[in-house]
Design goal:
mainly alpha; 6 helices; about 60% helix; about 170 residues
C-alpha cells in the first residue's frame, strides 16, 4: 500500500474547493447579477432609468427593499445584508456626484437606507416567525397544542417553553 504524501493532501483539498454545489453557484451568480444591476441603476445614464411615476422617494424605498429581500434570499442574515446595502446606498449616492448627468442627494440616501432597513426588519420577523411556527402548528390553536402533543401529532420541547419529554423507562 502506497503512503500519501503532503502534496497528495494539498491536491485533494484544492479539488474539493473547486467543486462548489450547484445551489451555491446559483446564489453567487444571482448575487453578482444583482450587484451589477444595482450599479447600473445607480450610476448608469439618467435617461435610461425606469421610473414608476410615484416619485423618486418611493422608487428608492421600494428598490432597496426589493434588493435587500433578494440578497437576503441568497444569504439569510437579514441585518448583515441590510447593513451592507445601507452602506452601499451611501456609497452609490456619493458616487453619483462623479457622473455628468446626476447629483448626489442626502435625502435620497435616507430613503434608500429606510428601504433596506425595512426589508431587514421584515426578513428578520419572517425568519423568526417561521422558526417558531412549523408546518404542523401553524393553524393549530394554542389551547389544542397540549392535546396534539399528547396524541403524538406534534413534539414540543424546551424551545417551546415546555419541559423536555422523557419516557418513563429512560430514567
Amino acid at each position: 500500500m502506497a503512503m500519501k504524501s503532503a502534496n497528495d493532501n494539498d491536491l485533494n483539498v484544492r479539488t474539493k474547493r473547486r467543486n462548489m454545489p450547484i445551489k451555491s453557484t446559483i446564489k453567487v451568480v444571482g448575487a453578482t447579477v444583482l450587484v451589477l444591476l444595482l450599479l447600473f441603476c445607480a450610476l448608469g445614464p439618467a435617461k435610461w432609468q425606469y421610473r414608476t411615476g410615484l416619485g423618486w422617494q418611493i422608487d428608492h424605498v421600494v428598490g432597496y427593499f426589493g434588493f435587500t429581500v433578494m440578497f437576503w434570499l441568497a444569504w439569510p442574515r437579514p441585518f448583515v445584508v441590510g447593513g451592507i446595502l445601507m452602506c452601499a446606498a451611501m456609497l452609490l449616492e456619493a458616487l453619483q456626484a462623479l457622473t455628468p448627468d446626476r447629483c448626489c442627494d442626502l435625502e435620497a440616501v435616507f430613503y434608500s437606507m429606510a428601504g433596506a432597513l425595512a426589508a431587514a426588519l421584515f426578513a428578520d420577523l419572517f425568519t423568526r416567525t417561521l422558526r417558531r411556527l412549523n408546518g404542523r402548528t401553524l393553524l393549530l390553536p394554542q389551547r389544542f397544542r397540549p392535546l396534539a402533543c399528547h396524541l403524538g401529532i406534534i413534539h414540543l420541547g424546551p424551545a417551546d417553553g415546555l419541559a423536555p419529554v422523557v419516557s418513563p423507562g429512560a430514567v
